[in-house]
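User: Sequence recovery, please. Input:
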């Protein structure tokens, strides 16, 4: 590793946690990590240097053939003062799979995690000082070599940078890979959703078997619904299954499923003081959600992802209907979605990432 660090006295000030600049998602930390690769020599020397632009040839493979894969994760400053990553092994494995999908080079997952930790050990002391806060960490791999003609990239660049996102309030369609070409075509629909007053797009697919509008994801997030089964009236947590290959195997998604099975399903629910439910991964359809809402069986909906973490859904605009979630009214008279199960699961995971409890999912980084 080569460190070419920006002197602290010339680094820009760290925006406070309530600074609106964080909402732009453009406020980055001072440094970035880069590692070059060539087919002839393999991986080169990692370099931590000032955050800045990346130089590419106009014929670079990434610009013409979308040879790009990326991952997002967060690093957390715990209430014990230590910094943690959340299940980074899953992110590393998914980046490996995404690379393979677009013919980018493989890497050693343990070596990659060591590089990320070295980078964050440099940045977190200054840019993540406060307990209970986090930084967004973006890692990407691109085909960087000159390449006109459809061929496997012979040069690549791996890089990492961190950005300051808005902080959480105090507690009281794609392949199964994260490749750039999966997201660009969705941006127009996202803009249309914004014009309709919505914050995200719920992606639906036409399906066979006499039903249509298969639920997949919400924007760049996994989608969950809590409802009562129509036949049995039993409570269920339902999310689209992965077997169709159109739902991203999100790390937060998997963690929600693991937590719900451990603490809410069957006899294990006694410790949570919540009504038990069954966890179901299966194809589900928008018509099912509409029917559940009309029959009073819909309990709550929420989305999960690295950036959004666990965020409730208040309403879905579907065709000419508005599918509203059950709402509650706070002391100030403001309505908000019912958050019984999503709030409980969010709290359990936050306990891990912020060090309230020791858990194997929380990966501690030494500064």
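Assistant: Recovered sequence (367 residues):
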């Amino acid at each position: 590793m080569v460190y070419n660090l920006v002197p602290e006295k010339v680094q820009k000030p760290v925006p406070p946690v309530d600074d609106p600049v964080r909402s732009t998602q453009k406020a980055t930390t001072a440094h970035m990590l880069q590692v070059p690769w060539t087919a002839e020599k393999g991986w080169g020397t990692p370099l931590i240097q000032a955050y800045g632009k990346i130089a590419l040839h106009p014929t670079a493979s990434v610009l013409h053939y979308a040879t790009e894969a990326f991952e997002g994760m967060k690093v957390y400053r715990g209430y014990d003062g230590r910094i943690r990553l959340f299940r980074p092994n899953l992110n590393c494995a998914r980046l490996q799979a995404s690379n393979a999908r677009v013919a980018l080079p493989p890497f050693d997952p343990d070596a990659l995690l060591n590089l990320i930790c070295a980078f964050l050990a440099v940045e977190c002391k200054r840019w993540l000082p406060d307990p209970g806060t986090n930084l967004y960490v973006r890692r990407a791999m691109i085909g960087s070599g000159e390449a006109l003609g459809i061929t496997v990239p012979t040069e690549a660049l791996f890089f990492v940078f961190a950005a300051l996102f808005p902080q959480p309030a105090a507690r009281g369609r794609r392949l199964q890979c994260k490749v750039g070409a999966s997201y660009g075509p969705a941006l127009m629909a996202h803009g249309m959703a914004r014009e309709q007053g919505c914050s995200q797009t719920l992606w639906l697919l036409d399906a066979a078997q006499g039903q249509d509008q298969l639920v997949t994801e919400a924007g760049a997030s996994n989608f969950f619904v809590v409802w009562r089964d129509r036949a049995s009236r039993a409570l269920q947590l339902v999310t689209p299954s992965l077997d169709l290959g159109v739902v991203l195997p999100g790390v937060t998604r998997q963690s929600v499923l693991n937590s719900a099975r451990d603490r809410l399903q069957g006899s294990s629910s006694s410790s949570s003081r919540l009504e038990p439910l069954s966890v179901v991964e299966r194809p589900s359809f928008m018509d099912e959600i509409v029917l559940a809402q009309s029959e009073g069986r819909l309990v709550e909906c929420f989305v999960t992802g690295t950036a959004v973490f666990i965020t409730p859904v208040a309403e879905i605009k579907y065709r000419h209907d508005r599918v509203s979630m059950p709402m509650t009214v706070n002391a100030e008279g403001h309505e908000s979605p019912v958050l019984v199960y999503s709030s409980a699961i969010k709290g359990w995971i936050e306990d891990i990432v912020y060090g309230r409890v020791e858990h194997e999912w929380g990966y501690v980084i030494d500064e």
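The longest strand covers residues 28-38.
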